[in-house]
Specification:
36% of the residues lie in helices and 15% in strands. The chain has 269 residues and is of the alpha/beta class. The strands form 3 sheets. It has a 5-stranded parallel sheet. It has a 3-stranded parallel sheet with strand order 6-7-8, covered by helices on one side. A two-stranded antiparallel sheet has the order 1-2. Strand 9, helix 7 and strand 10 form a beta-alpha-beta unit. The longest helix is centred in the C-terminal third of the chain and has 21 residues. The protein is globular. The chain starts with 9 loop residues before the first strand and ends in a 25-residue tail after the last helix.
Length: 269
């Protein structure tokens, strides 16, 4: 194996990535902190909220593209803040114009401003329109395995179920639903929303997720750059553990970790 080769890439829409951690760009104190955290994370796919971040639509204002250049990263425009399919579609059409025809996007259509839970009916509607228009859609959704399957059948290039509510930091609340989605999907499955700390990311990867997307867990940490580094290591460790295959759980059964030959046991006295 050559030093630059990666035998376990994340493949999305036909493109390979060495990092399985995707990060957002919101909630940082400034673009400098955003840049430092992104670099520490090792992420290659960076999601950008088009309705909240300037990537050229506001001339004369600082642009995120100066800190996170498209020449270095794969930008993933998202529809954060959209509550209807029409709004989401318009937002991503704008993103495609601003980014010179860029077609890899993250679709999210929210159903409630308090919980930010996805509106899956509007999500499916928007996904159908976007895919017909040539977009490659990575889609935020609930952890309902049936909805996840429908979104894959429509043609989404990745399914991104929540672990828990956006920004909650509650971690994975329903690993069983995630397991069903992972076992049945033929496209990448990435946990999106709810990760609070490194162990949450590791658990997601140990379950067999293809990747993890996060923003709040890094951006609102006391030290975002250090947390970004921790998340990078957690995703790598979780993936390695999944590939290695954990030992089986044995309720009420102990197995010594060292050889037992020659030991004095109660039966031999």
């Amino acid at each position: 194996m050559k030093p630059h080769e990666n035998l376990d890439p994340l493949v999305i829409a036909g493109k390979s990535y060495s990092s399985r951690l995707l990060v957002g760009t919101g909630k940082y104190k400034d673009f400098a902190e955003t840049q430092a955290a992104v670099e520490a994370s090792g992420a290659q796919i960076i999601t950008v909220a088009i309705r909240r971040t300037n990537i050229g639509q506001n001339p004369g204002e600082p642009s995120l593209l100066e800190a996170i250049p498209p020449s270095k990263y794969t930008l993933l425009p998202n529809t954060a803040g959209c509550y209807t399919a029409d709004d989401a579609v318009r937002t991503l059409r704008l993103a495609r114009e601003l980014l010179d025809g860029h077609d890899l996007v993250k679709l999210e259509v929210l159903g409630d401003p308090r919980t930010l839970f996805p509106n899956v009916v509007e999500t499916i509607s928007a996904a159908k329109t976007l895919i017909k228009e040539g977009f490659k859609v990575m889609v935020y959704t609930s952890d309902d395995p049936i909805i996840a399957r429908q979104l894959e059948e429509i043609g989404c290039v990745a399914v991104m179920p929540l672990a828990s509510l956006i920004g909650s930091g509650m971690g994975i609340l329903n690993p069983w639903n995630l397991q069903i989605i992972i076992e049945n999907a033929k496209v990448p499955v990435l946990v999106d929303a709810g990760v609070g700390t490194a162990s949450d990311a590791a658990i997601a990867m140990e379950l067999g997720c293809d990747g993890v997307l996060m923003n709040t867990a890094i951006a609102t940490a006391k030290n975002p750059v250090l947390m970004a580094s921790a998340m990078k290591k957690a995703v790598e460790a979780g993936r390695a553990a999944f590939l290695a295959g954990r030992m089986p759980r044995k309720l009420y059964t102990a197995a010594p970790s060292s050889p037992t030959a020659g030991l004095i046991t109660p039966a031999s006295k």
